[in-house]
Write a structure and sequence with these properties.
single chain; 14 strands; binds zinc ion; alpha/beta; 22% strand; six-stranded antiparallel beta sheet
């Protein structure tokens, strides 16, 4: 242990005691795209003992330009990102125990996912999940580190419920779907991912070793192309905040999760059946074999129908590519998987 982590132990703010804390820490990473992949790699190299990595999607070639954990064979095999991350981390640091969860984070599972976390780190690409995560973390008193990046611009903030403003203190209402640029509409460059992830993980390590005085205490915004770095100082949590002030968890308590959701900017729709559904992938593959071009791995089956590529996961979810029309995706789901 001393040799592997010797350079980090020499850093006095971590030291031997801090390293011991990292080794026994549990971090949850929600979303394993570009930010989440970078978080996972840095935390495992730092020696965090247990990582829970949750992601609903599979690796594609368009990810490889910035999603550092993944390689060409992962995209060719269409491995779920959580699984590909776990396999890669096993090669990087066999001392890190990784729990890979291939699932959509929603009202029905978010509290269970984070309940045993020392820390929750945002690697998602959408505000729907972030507001849900904010509710769950405030409710359970879990510290979480918000981070987002698109184009050359990114933002991050560390949220300690009861001590610092939460996401809803700062942005009370969720931005309208489609109102913000996404990586699929505005593009994104790797350096902003690395920058935002670095700030998030530096904060994570400070928290895990117990050096709270070193936290940046701001809403940090970086534009790596315009060379603009700014810190907006945060005040106290707002007593009128629905989440951390009034303890009203609008996103957590919302009606049951949307059955269908457009994956913003991806020309794809996700259809999610109720939690607890499972699909026998081998049998399903036989069922759609006549369609041709059917691919299967241990986690999913992918096939095409006309211009749509449909990927079905073991938990019954499907991602329908080639449309942003929920009705089209639902009818394809009903046709091949069932209502
Ligand atoms: Zn708040």
């Amino acid at each position: 242990m001393n040799e592997r982590y010797s350079r980090q132990i020499l850093f006095p703010e971590i030291g031997k005691a801090g390293q011991e804390k990292l080794l026994s820490s549990r971090a949850v990473i929600i979303g394993c795209g570009a930010l989440g992949a970078s978080h996972s790699e840095m935390l495992s190299r730092a020696g965090v003992g247990h990582l829970k990595i949750v992601d609903r999607d599979f690796v594609e070639f368009t990810n490889l330009q910035r999603q550092t954990l993944f390689k060409e064979s992962d995209a060719a095999d269409r491995l779920p990102k959580a699984i590909a991350a776990k396999m890669r981390i096993a090669e990087i640091n066999s001392g890190t125990e990784v729990e890979a969860i291939v699932a959509d984070v929603n009202q029905s599972n978010v509290e269970q996912i984070i309940h045993d976390a020392d820390l929750v780190i945002d690697g998602t690409d959408n505000f729907q999940v972030r507001y849900l995560l904010n509710d769950a973390c405030v409710k359970l008193g879990k510290t979480w580190i918000y981070g987002a990046a698109v184009s050359s611009y990114g933002t991050t903030m560390t949220i300690i419920p009861g001590e610092t403003p939460c996401l809803r203190c700062i942005f009370e209402e969720m931005p309208d779907a489609g109102s913000s640029p996404t990586c699929d509409t505005a593009g994104v460059i790797m350096p902003i991912i690395a920058s935002i992830s670095s700030v998030q993980i530096a904060e994570a390590i400070k928290l895990l070793v117990g050096d709270r005085d070193a936290l940046h205490g701001s809403l940090m915004q970086i534009d790596i192309w315009q060379n603009d770095w700014r810190k907006i100082k945060l005040s106290a949590p707002s007593p009128d905040c629905p989440a951390c002030g009034l303890h009203r968890y609008d996103f957590l308590d919302a009606e049951s999760p949307e059955f269908a959701a457009v994956l913003c900017g991806r020309d794809a729709v996700q259809i999610a059946p109720p939690t607890g559904t499972t699909i026998d992938l081998a049998a399903f593959r036989e069922k759609v074999a006549h369609l041709g071009d059917v691919k299967r791995n241990d986690y999913l089956v992918r096939f095409t129908s006309g211009n749509n590529e449909i990927t079905v996961f073991r938990d019954g979810r499907a991602i329908v590519k080639g449309t942003d029309d929920i009705a089209v995706a639902r009818s394809l789901y009903a046709r091949y998987i069932g209502a």
